[in-house]
Amino acid sequence: MAPLSLQQVSDRIEINDLLIRYTTAIDQKDYALLDGCFTPDAHLDYTSAGGIAGDYPKVRTWLEKALAPFPMTVHYVTNSVVELEGDTARARTAVLNPMGFAAEDGSLQTFTVGAYYNDRLARTPDGWRICERIEESKYMDGNLPAGLKIPS
Question: Three-state SS for 12?
Fold first, then answer.
């Protein structure tokens, strides 16, 4: 494997920062920050996790509703395999996502999701952005809370 150029090292760091910015936005429910993670015409597909697929504005609205019942989510992203292709890239990133649901008795019911994010990315004038994300769910440790309805 040939040594990485300074630009490739920079691109990889910027893509890693983008992936972490996404998790921060989701976990803090900061949807303005989330807007800076995707191109306006990005396509997202969360169907393997029981979610929806569609363009970014539609999925953003869904995410706000779907995440509202969870006072606690923590997304860990790791083991990213990034393939740079000039101003575009592909990445496959492992994600571990513990989530807490507020039960009626005030307790926090937790479960953990393991998945991969399969992303296409593009360098834009504002930096790297995700232009396609397909979540590939692999397992769930624990159970979805009784009565939880994921919006469509």
Answer: helix
Please write the tens of the pLDDT for every residue from 18-77.
Answer: 999 999 999 999 999 999 999 999 999 999 998 999 999 999 999 999 999 899 999 999
Q: Give the contacts of 12 (CB within 8 A, at least 6 positions apart).
A: 4, 82, 84
How are beta strands 88-102 and 108-124 bridged, if at all? antiparallel
Q: Write the single-letter amino acid at 54.
A: G
Structural domains of the chain, ranges and CATH numbers in brackets: 6-141 (3.10.450.50)
For the entire predicted model, the pTM comes to 0.93
Q: How many of the other CB atoms lie within 10 Å of CB of 68?
A: 10
Stretch (H or E) spanning 21:
helix 6-28
